[in-house]
Specification:
Elements lengths: L14 H6 L6 H16 L10 H8 L9 H13 L21 H13 L8 H16 L7 E5 L2 H19 L4 H4 L6 E6 L5 H8 L7 E4 L9 H13 L3 E8 L11 H10 L3 E5 L24 E4 L12 E5 L2 H8 L5 H4 L32 H35 L4 E5 L7 E4 L7 H15 L5 E5 L2 E5 L9 H19 L7
Parallel strand pairs: 2-3, 2-4, 4-5, 5-6
Antiparallel strand pairs: 1-7, 6-7, 8-9, 10-11
Helix pairs in contact: 2-4, 5-14, 6-14, 7-9, 7-12, 14-16, 15-16
Length: about 500
C-alpha cells in the first residue's frame, strides 16, 4: 500500500497513509457537500466577496504546507472560505461579460468528464460525443452542412484556429506551405471592422501575419462593417500586390451585438480570393430568433465560423468551437507530426478490441491543443436537456430583455439609447440637458451602480459616448431585474445630476 513501511500490515491505516495519499473514491459524499454549497452560492446569499476580503485573505494566505489536511479538510475549506467568496456571475443581475455562471446540467457533465474522460481521446462515448455535439452545434447555428469542427478553450483560440486555416489555404494557393516552411516575406493582409474583437489582431500576431497587417475597416451608423470601405481597401491592396488572406465578419459584435452584412462581405472576400471567416462567438445562436434571422443571410458563404458555447449556451467557461468546410486544411495547418510515444501506442482502430486500441478522431491535429478535456459531452448535455426549441426560447427571451430596456429608455426623459439592440445587448446612458459632461456623469454613475446595487453590467463607448452596456445571456435573469436596472440608473443619475456642474 502506498506510503506504508515494508513491515506494515496491508490493512493498517497509518498517519502517513491518511495524510499523504490523495482520496481516490467517495465522490458522492464530497461532491454532495460541494453541490449543497453551490446551491447556497447560486441563491446569492453571500453578496460581494470584497466585503470579506481581509477574512478570506487571512484564511487562505499561508506557506506551502508540509503536511496535508486530507480530503475532508480541503472540502471543508472550499465550503467555508472559497466558494462563498467567488465571482458574482451567478447573480441574476450580472450582465457585464458575455460569460455567465453555467446552468446545472453542463456542470454535472463537466464533472463527469473530469474523471470518466479527462482527455477527449480513445474509442469511448466521450470521443463520439465530441463529434456528435459539434455536428449538432453546426446544425443548430445553420452552418453549411459540410462544415466540421474542433473545440478549443475560447473565442481567442477559436479565431486563431480559423485564421490559421485561412493562412494555410491562402498561401498554399500561392505555392507556399506556411506550416511547414514559414512565410516567404511577401505582403499579406487580414480585413475586419473597427468593432471586431481584438483577438483577430492577436491571432494575426501569433500566426506571423502581423497586427500591422490587419486592416481595420470603418463601420456605419449601426456599427456594421462599411462594405464600400472594405471593397476599396481590398482593391488598393491587390493593386499593390498585397495577398488578401482573410476577411473576418462579425455575427454579433462584443461591443453592441451588431451583425455585419454577411452576404456582401462574403461576396467581396470571394471576389478577391480571400477566405471568409465569421466570428459568431457570441451572436451566432441568435439566428434562432426568427425576428432577426435574415440578418445572418450569407452565412452559407463562410469558409469558417466560430461559436462559444460558454457564452449564450451557458456552458462552463473554456468551450469554443471552430468550424471549417474542409477539416484537412486544419490538419495541414496544425499537425504536430507523428510521435512514437503517441501514435505508436495505438493499433488499427478497425480491428480494435479495447478502447485504447485507437485514439478516436484526432482533434490534436486540428488545432493547437494536444491535451484537452472532453468538452463535447458538456455541449451535448445542454442540447440534450433543452433541445433546439429550448435554446430558441432562451435566445428570444434574452433579446426581449434588451428590447424591453431600450423601450424603457425611450419612454424616459432621463435615459437614452446609444445603440439599438440587435441581439441581447442594449447600450444606453443617463442624460440631462443641464449637465455639461455626460460622459463623466455616466462614468461616476456606473461605478456607483456596480458598487451599490445588485445590477452588474459593463461599460463601453459608442460613437464616442460613454455607455452602460448590459448583455442579457444570464439564465437567472427575470424581467423585474431589467426594470430594476433602469430604475437604479435613473435614481443614481438624478442624485448625481443634482450636484453636477452646470454647462459653461
Amino acid at each position: 500500500m502506498y506510503g506504508l513501511p515494508h513491515h506494515a500490515s496491508s490493512n493498517a491505516r497509518t498517519r502517513v497513509d491518511l495524510v499523504h495519499a490523495p482520496e481516490t473514491n467517495d465522490f458522492s459524499a464530497r461532491l454532495g457537500r460541494i453541490g449543497a454549497e453551490l446551491d447556497r452560492f447560486a441563491d446569492g446569499r453571500y453578496g460581494d466577496a470584497l466585503e470579506r476580503r481581509e477574512e478570506w485573505t487571512d484564511a487562505l494566505t499561508r506557506a506551502l504546507p508540509d503536511e496535508g489536511i486530507g480530503a475532508d479538510g480541503v472540502v471543508d475549506e472550499l465550503e467555508r472560505v472559497v466558494i462563498p467568496n467567488g465571482m458574482r456571475l451567478a447573480d441574476p443581475g450580472f450582465w457585464g461579460w458575455i460569460t455567465v455562471a453555467p446552468t446545472t446540467v453542463p456542470i454535472a457533465a463537466s464533472a463527469a468528464a473530469a474523471l470518466a474522460s479527462p482527455q477527449r481521446y480513445t474509442l469511448t462515448a466521450f470521443n463520439l460525443l465530441e463529434e456528435l455535439s459539434l455536428d449538432w452545434l453546426a446544425e443548430l447555428c445553420r452552418l453549411p452542412s459540410e462544415m466540421k469542427g474542433v473545440y478549443s478553450s475560447g473565442g481567442s483560440v477559436a479565431n486563431l484556429v480559423a485564421l490559421g486555416a485561412a493562412r494555410q489555404w491562402a498561401l498554399e494557393r500561392a505555392g507556399i506551405d506556411p506550416a511547414a516552411d514559414g512565410l516567404d516575406g511577401r505582403e499579406i493582409a487580414v480585413y475586419t471592422s473597427t468593432e471586431a474583437h481584438h483577438t483577430v489582431q492577436r491571432s494575426a500576431a501569433v500566426l506571423g501575419i502581423g497586427r500591422a497587417n490587419v486592416r481595420l475597416i470603418a463601420t456605419d451608423d449601426h456599427q456594421r462593417m462599411d462594405v464600400d470601405a472594405l471593397r476599396e481597401t481590398m482593391r488598393k491592396d491587390v493593386a499593390d500586390d498585397v495577398l488578401p488572406i482573410a476577411v473576418v465578419a462579425a455575427a454579433g459584435t462584443t461591443n453592441t451585438g451588431a451583425i455585419d452584412p454577411l452576404r456582401t462581405v462574403g461576396e467581396i472576400a470571394r471576389e478577391h480570393g480571400a477566405w471568409f471567416h465569421v466570428d459568431g462567438a457570441y451572436g451566432l445562436p441568435g439566428i434562432l430568433d426568427e425576428r432577426i434571422e435574415q440578418l445572418f443571410d450569407g452565412l452559407d458563404l463562410a469558409d469558417s465560423a466560430i461559436v462559444d458555447p460558454h457564452k449564450w449556451l451557458r456552458a462552463p467557461v473554456g468551450i469554443a468551437a471552430t468550424f471549417v468546410r474542409d477539416r484537412s486544411v486544419l490538419h495541414r495547418a496544425f499537425t504536430q507530426e507523428e510521435s512514437p510515444y503517441l501514435e505508436g501506442s495505438f493499433g488499427d482502430a478497425a480491428e480494435a478490441r479495447s478502447s485504447l486500441d485507437g485514439m478516436g478522431i484526432p482533434y490534436a491535429d486540428f488545432g493547437v491543443e494536444l491535451s484537452a478535456p472532453a468538452r463535447g459531452v458538456v455541449v451535448w448535455s445542454i442540447l440534450r436537456e433543452v433541445g433546439r426549441e429550448g435554446v430558441r426560447a432562451q435566445i428570444r427571451r434574452d433579446n426581449d430583455f434588451a428590447r424591453h430596456l431600450a423601450q424603457r429608455a425611450c419612454e424616459s426623459d432621463s435615459l437614452e439609447v446609444l445603440a439599438e439592440p440587435t441581439l441581447s445587448i442594449c447600450c444606453f446612458r443617463y442624460t440631462a440637458r443641464e449637465v455639461d459632461d455626460l460622459d463623466a456623469l455616466n462614468a461616476r454613475l456606473f461605478r456607483r451602480l456596480v458598487q451599490e446595487t445588485p445590477f452588474l453590467p459593463s461599460a463601453t463607448v459608442v460613437d464616442g459616448k460613454f455607455a452602460i452596456r448590459p448583455c442579457f445571456i444570464n439564465a437567472r435573469t427575470r424581467v423585474d431585474d431589467v426594470d430594476g436596472l433602469a430604475d437604479a440608473v435613473t435614481r443614481i443619475g438624478d442624485e448625481l445630476r443634482a450636484t453636477a456642474p452646470a454647462p459653461a
